[in-house]
Write a structure and sequence with these properties.
Elements: H1 14-47, H2 51-57, H3 62-95, H4 102-114, H5 130-179, H6 183-191, H7 199-202, H8 215-227, H9 230-233, H10 237-244, H11 248-266, H12 276-287, H13 292-301, E1 316-319, E2 325-328, H14 335-349, H15 366-378, H16 380-392, E3 395-399, E4 405-409, H17 412-415, E5 422-425, E6 428-431, H18 439-449, E7 451-456, E8 459-466, H19 467-484, H20 486-497, E9 498-503, E10 512-517, H21 526-531
Helix pairs in contact: 1-3, 3-5, 4-5, 8-11, 11-12, 11-13, 14-15, 14-16, 15-19, 19-20
């Protein structure tokens, strides 16, 4: 279908108007460089004098800088007005849905012309007389003209409305240029996305809300801050208010980049945002309310760099309902690799998600990272020996946000060592689900479900105990192992959990010691009580 240009577009394109606005901004950059140079030269001059002379020159460039800032403000304001009118022209020429833009009006006319404006030609019979044939032609011509007239009436009406909207837009922009940067005018330009991201700095007396920015301008603000990292560290109050008012996702992105810049200045990071798990770590600290000082302390004290997370590469990530990350171990990992993966999983999550249990959550900190490192060292046997034992006997293991391992499955050898709902050995908590059809899938289901799982009448069912509470309980047992050692812990636990009763055996055999539980709900067992009875799934003590 051939396009027909019934209506002419605005004589100056929106692109040309916007280009003029950008030219204005190009000159703004030159003014900005002059201000920076003037302030730098002034600082050097003040540094070279002292006493009375220093006082006399201290404020020397203030008037010049103020005037230059006024020029910047006026230029950006004028550029914003121009860009806004360029957008209005684009709307007039191309984008308006109703009244339809010039291009859409012309497309509608071209479509009507191609369709004969809805007129249908009724061909006369083969034996029609010349008069009948002429009548058929006249009827078609009349219908064509009527259809065209009706369409033109509609299109001309919309064109008049379209012209009115553009005239109104032109008047509004002209008024804005005359009035200057008032609160209402600057806010309108800001909401339209035609002011630069640093507008809150240029117009410090005017409140600008991040929530008023269109999505494209929000992304532009993020990129501007990345390109000007000094503003991420020394954020003017007006700009900070804008950032605070942005939607959560883009605001978090900005705070992540802010922390990246702090890490660079600390010497813990070089180059741009490396992405991957390193970025996930920094993001988790933002979302979990971890302070910047704590982040920097962990990075500094434990030499955390993007390479530190490489140990987790190639491992399947399983996410719990709270967004915490667990990693399925690869079965051929060495004990040192597993230990590093466990530690980095704790660091990555920036918090365990534990709440509402027997204790308050231990704050995420450099000291807590060191405690886990020390505990891992004391329980080294569980990495060097037990990880391979679990894998060799058909079980599977995941790292956890608590800085320990959780596993299940395995053959009869594994089954002999796991009791009740589960048993912890050193840094490994084994859930008492023996030899499932697919141990990996069972682990995925448990983590994804966020609650403990048990075997009831031969079927695996989900319980009501939150997994983060259970892991908090079991991690305390890991710490108890570290403080006592493997066999002393087991000896103390059995001593508090059972009584040994000598039972006579029929025949000539000597009596045998048989363990009789002292308690079935952990009450009276100081190790269980220290770990938290509720977190272990025990009923309250009477």
């Amino acid at each position: 279908m051939q396009a027909y240009s019934l209506f002419e577009p605005y004589p100056v394109s929106g692109t040309s108007i916007k280009s003029a606005a950008e030219d204005t901004r190009g000159r703004v950059a030159s003014v900005d460089q002059v201000i920076a140079q003037l302030e730098q030269d002034h600082r050097q001059a003040v540094a070279s004098v002292s006493g009375t002379l220093e006082e006399s020159v201290a404020d020397a460039p203030t008037e010049a800088v103020t005037r230059a800032n006024d020029v910047l403000q006026q230029a950006e304001y004028a550029a914003g007005c121009l860009e806004l009118f360029g957008t209005d022209i684009d709307t007039y020429n191309f984008e308006s849905a109703y009244p339809r833009s010039i291009s859409r009006l012309n497309a509608a006319y071209s479509a009507g012309l191609s369709d004969g404006f809805g007129a249908e030609y009724e061909a006369p019979a083969d034996d029609a007389t010349p008069e009948e044939r002429q009548t058929a032609n006249d009827d078609y011509t009349a219908a064509w003209r009527d259809g065209r007239r009706e369409l033109l009436n509609v299109l001309n009406t919309e064109k008049a409305l379209l012209d009115g909207e553009l005239d109104q837009a032109a008047t509004s922009v002209s008024t804005m240029l005359t009035q200057g940067p008032t609160q209402a005018n600057v806010t309108s330009l800001w909401a339209a996305g035609v002011l630069p991201p640093y507008a809150p700095v240029l117009f410090p007396g005017i409140y600008l809300s991040g929530g008023d920015l269109p999505p494209e301008a929000q992304q532009e603000l993020l990129q501007y801050l990345i390109d000007h990292p000094v503003l991420l560290i020394n954020t003017p109050s007006a700009l900070a208010l804008v950032i605070a008012g942005l939607p959560t996702d883009i605001r978090t992105d900005i705070y992540v980049e802010q922390r990246m810049e702090y890490l660079r200045r600390e010497g813990s990071l070089t180059g741009p945002n490396p992405g991957g798990l390193y970025e996930d770590w920094v993001r988790n600290t933002v979302e979990n309310g971890v302070s910047i000082d704590t982040l920097l302390e962990i990075a500094r004290d434990h030499d955390i760099t993007p390479d530190s997370f490489d140990v987790l590469d190639g491992m399947e990530i399983i996410t719990d309902p709270d967004g915490k990350s667990f990693f399925m171990l690869v079965t051929d990992m060495s004990g040192d690799e597993v230990r590093a993966a466990v530690l980095m999983t704790y660091i990555l999550n920036a918090g365990t998600g534990y709440e509402g249990g027997d204790y308050s959550e231990t704050p995420y900190s450099s000291d807590e990272v060191q405690r886990i490192i020390d505990r891992q060292s004391d329980n080294l046997w569980s990495y060097d020996e037990d990880v391979a034992f679990v894998h060799d006997n058909g079980g599977r293991l995941t790292t956890t946000p608590n800085g320990m391992l959780m596993g299940l499955g395995g053959n009869w050898r594994q089954d002999m060592l796991v009791f009740s709902g589960g048993t912890t050995y050193g840094d490994i908590f084994m859930v008492n689900i023996d030899d499932p059809e697919d141990a990996e899938e069972q682990l995925r289901a448990m983590v994804a479900g966020g609650t403990a799982m048990y075997v009831v009448d031969g079927e695996v069912v989900s319980g009501r105990l939150d997994l983060d509470r259970l892991l908090h309980h079991e991690e305390i047992h890991s710490q108890q192992y570290a403080e006592r050692g493997l066999w002393p812990f087991i000896d103390e636990y059995l001593d508090e959990q059972v009584d040994w009763v000598w039972v006579d055996v029929p025949g000539d055999l000597n009596p045998l010691p048989v363990p009789v539980p002292v308690t079935r709900n952990g009450c009276g067992n100081s190790l269980e009580e220290e770990a938290g009875l509720e977190g272990g799934g025990y009923d309250p003590c009477e």
